[in-house]
Amino acid sequence: MTLGRGLEAIFSPRSIAIVGASQDASKIGGRPLQLLQKYGYAGTIFPVNKSGGTVQSLPAFQSIEALPETPDLAVIAVPAEVAVDAVEQCAARGVRAAVILSAGFSEMGEDGARQQARLTQIAENSGMRILGPNCLGAVGVAEKAIATFSVVLEERMPDAGSVGIVSQSGNLGSFTMRQAGERGIGISRFMTTGNECDIDIADAIAFLARDPGTSTILCCMETCRDGAKLIEALSLAHDAGKPVIVLKIGTSDAGQVAAASHTGALAGADQVFDAVFRSTGALRVASIEELLDVGHAATIVGSGELPKGNGVALLAASGGFGVMMADAASAAGLAIPELSASTQRRIRAAIPYAAPRNPVDTTAQISSRPEILTEVLSAVVDDQACDLTILLLSSSLFLPRLREVYVRSLTEVRQRYPDRLLVLCGSGPKDILAKINAMGIPTVEGIDAVCKAAAGLLRLRAALSKTHANVEVARAVPLSSEAFANESKAKAVLAQAGIPILEERVASDLTSALTAAREIGYPVVLKILSSDIAHKTEVGGVVVGLATPEALAEAHAGMTTRVAEKAPDARIDGVLVAEMASDGVELIIGTKKDPIFGPVVVAGLGGIFAELMQDVALRLAPVDERQAMEMLSSLKAFKLLDGARGRPKADVTAAAKVISSLSKFAVAHVGSVAEIDINPLLVRPQGKGAVALDALLVPVSRAEGTR
Amino acid sequence: MTLGRGLEAIFSPRSIAIVGASQDASKIGGRPLQLLQKYGYAGTIFPVNKSGGTVQSLPAFQSIEALPETPDLAVIAVPAEVAVDAVEQCAARGVRAAVILSAGFSEMGEDGARQQARLTQIAENSGMRILGPNCLGAVGVAEKAIATFSVVLEERMPDAGSVGIVSQSGNLGSFTMRQAGERGIGISRFMTTGNECDIDIADAIAFLARDPGTSTILCCMETCRDGAKLIEALSLAHDAGKPVIVLKIGTSDAGQVAAASHTGALAGADQVFDAVFRSTGALRVASIEELLDVGHAATIVGSGELPKGNGVALLAASGGFGVMMADAASAAGLAIPELSASTQRRIRAAIPYAAPRNPVDTTAQISSRPEILTEVLSAVVDDQACDLTILLLSSSLFLPRLREVYVRSLTEVRQRYPDRLLVLCGSGPKDILAKINAMGIPTVEGIDAVCKAAAGLLRLRAALSKTHANVEVARAVPLSSEAFANESKAKAVLAQAGIPILEERVASDLTSALTAAREIGYPVVLKILSSDIAHKTEVGGVVVGLATPEALAEAHAGMTTRVAEKAPDARIDGVLVAEMASDGVELIIGTKKDPIFGPVVVAGLGGIFAELMQDVALRLAPVDERQAMEMLSSLKAFKLLDGARGRPKADVTAAAKVISSLSKFAVAHVGSVAEIDINPLLVRPQGKGAVALDALLVPVSRAEGTR
C-alpha cells in the first residue's frame, strides 16, 4: 500500500457525514457541524443521528444507509461501544475515509485494544482509510473541511497557507495550530493521528510530501509504531525538497514514562530518534516555540534563500543587546565574523560613535535619527563576510514615530539587496509584522529564539542538501549458535566481516598455551575462554603483559584458581593466548537492535569516560565510512584521537572502516544477532590500523529472553 | 563611604533641575521634562537652558547658579564638552545628586576617560553622588521622579510595585522595565549605571537592599569594576532576605569580546561570576525572559512560600502536554513523584479516564465539563508528595466559556489550600492574569519557561537560606622569591600550609640520588629540578617506577642527556628523588588571582579529561572543607572518586581538606602568589589521604609580567 494514500478524502472531501451529530455545539458531535457551517464549508454536510429530525438547522439522517448519497468522509462522534459498527457501515457503503473522534480504545486497556483491532481490520479489508480513534481529527484549511472538535477553532479559523501540521497528540497539534495563527503562519492541512489504528503520522507526512499546497511540514511526535514507515515518509518529504521540522517529545526518562502510559506504546530511545531524523534529513527542534520559529522563518525565506554558512551579522541599538546577541549566537553555534573594513567605514560614516565590528551597536542615535537605519543596515546586509543579518528592534515597532521610519528602511534595504538574508528580532503590532514578513523578512521575538531560528535555517539547508547514503546490505545466512559461544568464535566471525583482530590461539592447557605464545611471540595476553563468563576481568580472567614462559605459566595457574573460585559453575572452553598491543586509544563500539528501528551502531571512548560524560555517537545501521568518520568527529573525546596535547594522531580512518563494517554486519545478520560489543577497539597511531581486542556477540533469542 | 549612600536624592528628590532642557521632547534634554509633566511629578521642576525663556511651558533658568533654590537632583543633558562644568556647578551649589545622560566619556577613548576622571574627582571631593555618564538614568516610580530619556516611558509609565530594576546597559534595563510592565510586574525603582564614574551597580543594589519599598531586585550586568563592592552589596541584599536575580551577559567568548569593546572594561571570566553569585546567594538566570519569569513568580508568591523541595505535580488537559511538561521539568532539575493512592482515587472519582499518576492528564473531558477542575486540582494541590503544582491551561483562558469556570476553580482551590504553592502555565487576557496573580498564583507562558521559573523559586529558597561560610584568613608575610624557585621549594611551602606531600630529597648528583633512594626506599620517581623548566614531562624530565639502583642510574644518565638537549639554556638545580605512589585518582587543583575578584580555587579530574570535558569546579577563595566537598561532588567525574564500577571509594575528605587549605593559603599570600598548580593531587582510597605529587607556585610579578 502506498504511504499516505487516500488522505485527500479527509482534507478535501466533496461531502461529509457527521455520525452522532448533536444540536449542542460544545459536544464533540456538535462542534464540527457548527464549525463547518460557521466557516462556510462548500461541500454537502449530512448530519447522522439515530433520532433523525433537524440538527443545527440541517435535516438529519438516521443511519449511514439512509444517506441519499455516499459521502467522501464520515466523522464518527458516537461512543466507542457503537463507533465500530458505524465505521463498518461506512465501509460497507463505500465511504472513502472515516475520522473517529471517539475515545475509549487502546488507551483504555485490553477491551479497548480489541475494539481498535477491529477498526484496523475494517480498514485493511475495505480500503477505507481511518483516522484515529481517540484523535482530534483533521482540517483542510482552504477547503474549510473541518473534521475536528478542537476548541482552537472556536476562536477563529486559521489563515490558509502552505504549512502543514501533523501531530499524534490532539492538544499539542491544536495548540501548535493556534500559535501558528498568532504568528501569522498560514496553514494548508492539519491532522492529528491519535491511536493510529490505520493512518499514522508517517501517512500524514507522506501525504503532505506529495501535496502541492504544502511547502513545509511541522510535526509533533510522541512515539513511533512502525519505524520503516516513518523513515520512508521522512525520506519522501526530503526528496520533495520540503523541510520537515519535528518536535519529538518524551526526551527525558520521566517524559518517556509519561508517554508510554499515555500512548500505550513504547516511546523508543530518544537518541535513536535523533539518528532517524539525522539520516532522513528531518530537523529536530526542542520546543513548540522553536518549531514555530523555524517553521515561520523557513516558510518566509523559502528554501532557495537558506544561509550558506554560519556567519551572522548582529545589529542592535545598544551595546548590551549586542553582547546578549553574541552570547545567544555563540550558544546556537553561529559565528560572528568581524565585518570588512569598508563596511565598518560605511557604518562610521553614518554614525560616528557606532561600534562597527560585529555585533554592530548603532547607539541611542538610532532612536533620535531613525532614518540612518537604511544606510547602516545596507552596509551590514551587503557584507559578504556574513551569511545572514539579524537586526534587533526589540519593542521599537510599537512606537509609531519609529515604526514608520523603520518599515520604510526595511523596504528599501530589501529592494536593494533582495538576495541577502535578513531576520528581524523584536515584537510589534501584528499588521506591521505581517507587512515585514511579506517582504521575505522573518520576525522572531526573543534573542535566544532568533538565534536558534537562524541556526535552524542553517541546519535545514544542510539537511535538505544532504544526499542519502544508500548503503546496500544484503541479508546473510543466519549465524550458527557456534558463533555466539565465546570471544574467540565471535572474533573469528567478525574477522571474516573485515574487522581486524590480533593473532591469537585457543589453548586447552598450559603446554599448548606455551606453544601458542612461542609462535605468536612474547609479550602475550592470557584470557579465560568461556561462554558462561561475559565479563572476564571481574573473575580475574585477563592477564596482560606476559613477557616470559615463566610469567605465562604463573599467570595460567593463578587464573585457573581464581576462575574456579569466582565462577565455579562456568563451563571453561580453555584459554586464549593473544598478541599484546597497547599503543593507541581505546574505543568502545557496538550495535544494538532497536525494537522500532532495527540495528543501530554506537561508538564512544573506552573506559569509564563514555559513560561518565554521556559522550557516545549513535546512528542507524548501516553507515558508510564517511558517516562513521562523522560519528567519531562528533565525540567530545575526538581531540584524543586527533592528537591532543602532542599525542600522535590515531588512525581514525581505520576506526571508521571498522565501525562501517560492523554496522553492515549487524544489518546483514539482523535475524540472528541482537547485540555486538567490541570493547575495546584499539586505534593505533596513523597508518597502523585499528584492532578489536575483545568482542561479544549476543544472539537474538538470548537478548529477547532477558528483556 | 557607605555603599548606596545618597541614592534617595535620585529616586525621591523634592526638586529636579534639567540642565540642557529642550523644547523638543524627542531630544534627551526634552524627554525627561515632558515625561515629568505628563506623569505628574509632584516636586518642583527647574528647566536650565542658557537661553532662558520658557521651555515646555515652564520658566527656564540660565544657569545652576541662577536657580531660586538648590535642587535635590540635577539631570545633565548637555554635550560632554560642557557637562563637566555643569556638574561642577551643581556640586558647588550643593546639589545632592546628578544624573549624567550625556555620552562621550570613557567609551570614546582617552580624552573621554580623562573627562570622566574629573567627574569621579568631583564626586569624591564634594560628596555629591553622580550617576552615569552615558547612562539612561533612573526612575522613582511611585514618586514619578523621571530622570531618564528611555523611549519605553513614551508608551506608558510602569505600575508602581516592589520590584527594583538595576542595569548597567540602559537599553537592556529599559527593555526589562517594559517587559516587566507587560507581565504586570510593579516596579519600585529603576536605575541604569552606564559608565559608572561614581555610582555603580553595587551602589544601586545596596540602596535597594535597604529600601523598604523594594522586595525583589532584578539586575542586568555586563561587567564589574570593583569586585569587593559587588560582593558586599549582594551580601547586604541577602542579609535583608531580598532575592537578587541577575542576568549577567557576556557568557560566551564572542559576548565577552563585544562587552569589552562596549563598556571599555574587562568583562571578567564568566565562571568567576558564577562563583560570586553562588557565594553571595544571588540567583543567576540565563535570559531576560527567565529574569522576568522568576522575578514575577518570586514577587507573587513572596519569600515565605518558596518550595521546600523539588517535587512537582504536573496537571494538563492532554497526555502530550503532560509528556512535554515532564521533559521540561526533568531538564530543569525537578522531580515528578507519583501522587499518593488516595490522590489518584480522588482524581479518578472526578474523571474516570484520567491518567492520575503524575503528570496528571485530565483528558479532553475538562473542556466539556470544566467545572471538574476544582476537584481534580484540589486533589493534586493537596498531595504532600509534591512541593508545588504546575497547572497547564495553555490558551484556554482566551475562551470566555472556559475562563469563567477556571477562574472560579482557582479561587476556590486557593482559598481551600492557601499554603500550597500553585503556578499556572498559559496565556490569557491581561486582566484575567492579573486577577489570578492577585490570588498569589504566578502565571508563566511557556512550558520550558514555567519549569525554569519553578526551578528558579527552588534555587531562590536555597540561595536565601544559605548562611555565609565566613572563612577568616589573615594576611601572611609575603613569600620570599626562594619559594618560587622550583618544585621542591614550592612543595615545602605548601607542606607547611598543611598540604601532604610524599617523602622526597633533592640530589645534586647520581651518588646523592642513590643515597636518597636507599633512604626513601625503592621504587622511586626521578624528576629534573629547575626554575627554568615549568613542564618537566615535555623535556623528558620525569621517570617513574625506578625499582633498583641500576634503573635509577640509567634513568639519571638518560634524563641528564635529554634535558641538556631539549632545554640547553635551563639552569639545573639538581634532581628530585621521591617516593613512588600511584594507587588512587588524580585531580588537578589550583588557585588563580582574578583581576576583579581576587583569588579563586579550582578543582577537576587530572589528565586530559578536565580540559576535554570542561568539567571543572571553581569558587572564590577561601573555601571551607564543606564547600570544597561540594566542589568535588559537583564534578561529573565525581563518580570516579565515589567508587564507580567497583573501584574503591577515594578519600574525598582528605582531598577537600587540601582544597580548603590551598584556598586559604592563596588568600593569605594574595600579595605575593598569583597562581598555584597542584598537578596531580593523588587521592588515595578512603582513609589513606591525598598527596600533592607535583606543585608549581607563580609569583605575582611573573604572572603580571606575562599577562
TrEMBL record, chains A, B:
Residues 491-527 form the ATP-grasp domain. Keywords: ATP-binding, Ligase, Nucleotide-binding, Tricarboxylic acid cycle. GO terms for biological process: tricarboxylic acid cycle. GO terms for molecular function: ATP binding; ligase activity; metal ion binding. In the N-terminal section; belongs to the acetate CoA ligase alpha subunit family. This is Acetate--CoA ligase family protein. The lineage of its organism: Bacteria, Pseudomonadati, Pseudomonadota, Alphaproteobacteria, Hyphomicrobiales.
